Amino acid sequence: MSKLMRIGSGTAKAITADPLEQRILSERLRGLSKISADKKFRPVDGQARASRKKTHRIGEIVLAPERNISCIIHNFSDAGMRIELTEERQPPASFRLRVPTLEFDRRVQVVWQSDNIIGLIFE
Predict the structure, then answer these.
(1) Which of the residues 95, 100, 114, 120 has the least number of beta carbons within 10 Å of its own beta carbon?
(2) CA nearest 103: which of 73, 63, 67?
(3) Strand, coil or helix: 92
(4) Are 75 and 54 in contact (CB under 8 A)?
(5) Residue 26 phi, psi dihedral angles, 5° rounding
(6) How does pLDDT run along the chain (123 residues), one tens digit per residue?
(7) CA-based nearest residue to 3, from 27, 35, 26, 20
(8) Are 7 and 15 in contact (CB under 8 A)?
(9) pTM more than 0.85
């Protein structure tokens, strides 16, 4: 079982006993930590979109302690994520998203929604 340890302001490190899991988590964490808060995902015709990484991880929309909405993370990039809600609920326009298997815990903002599929950008 891996843990996330925060070092300083905003820096995080994955801690696990398995060396392979440590390497994988560290690489993912390094990629996620490079995301700048001022990046906004606004594709323009002819402009390349951010490179997406496919995944199927379980996440949680954190509304309050003991009040979460489960979701599935379908892909993520340096700019944001595409998630699918596992229940029929309307999330707020901005919320905290936690994905334990990716060592991800960050505020996100909804940029589009189609039924239970939601596009997010990182705040």
Answers:
(1) 114
(2) 73
(3) coil
(4) yes
(5) -65, -40
(6) 444 444 444 444 555 566 776 676 666 655 554 444 444 445 555 545 567 788 889 999 998 887 888 999 999 888 899 999 988 888 899 999 999 988 889 999 999 998 889 999 998
(7) 26
(8) no
(9) no
Residue ranges covered by each domain of the chain: 1-34, 41-122
Q: Are 51 and 41 in contact (CB under 8 A)?
A: no
For 30-90, the DSSP string reads HHHHT--TT------TTPPPPPPEEEEEEEEEEEETTEEEEEEEEEE-SSEEEEEESSS--
Q: Class assignment of domain 41-122? A: mainly beta
Provide the pLDDT for residue 31: 57
Check: CB of residue 110 under 8 Å from CB of residue 93: yes
CB atoms < 10 A from the CB of 78, how many?
16
Per the structure block, which two tokens stand in for 4?
A: 């996330």
Task: Decide if 14 contacts 25 (C-beta within 8 A).
Answer: yes
The three-state secondary structure class of 99 is strand
